[in-house]
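PROTEIN DESIGN WORKSHEET
SECTION A - STRUCTURE
LENGTH: 61
TOKENS:
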């Protein structure tokens, strides 16, 4: 079954991701892509944000 949502990477995000070590890139990509299945279970709204699209998620080591 396809994800309920689509993750869209901005150019800036892709550029910043590309500057990280490969191991870290993989962890971040896995976490972000998993958010597409159920974003409300993984992300908490950033305090002071006015849009639901602004969120924060922890990616452990």
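SECTION B - SEQUENCE
RESIDUE ASSIGNMENT:
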């Amino acid at each position: 079954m396809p994800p309920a949502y689509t993750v869209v990477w901005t150019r800036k995000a892709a550029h910043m991701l590309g500057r990280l070590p490969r191991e870290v890139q993989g962890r971040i990509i896995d976490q972000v892509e998993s958010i597409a299945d159920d974003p409300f279970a993984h992300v908490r709204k950033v305090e002071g944000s006015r849009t639901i699209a602004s969120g924060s998620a922890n990616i452990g080591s």
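SECTION C - NOTES
Residues 9 and 30 are 13 Å apart (CA to CA).
The helical segments are 11-18, 22-35, 39-42.
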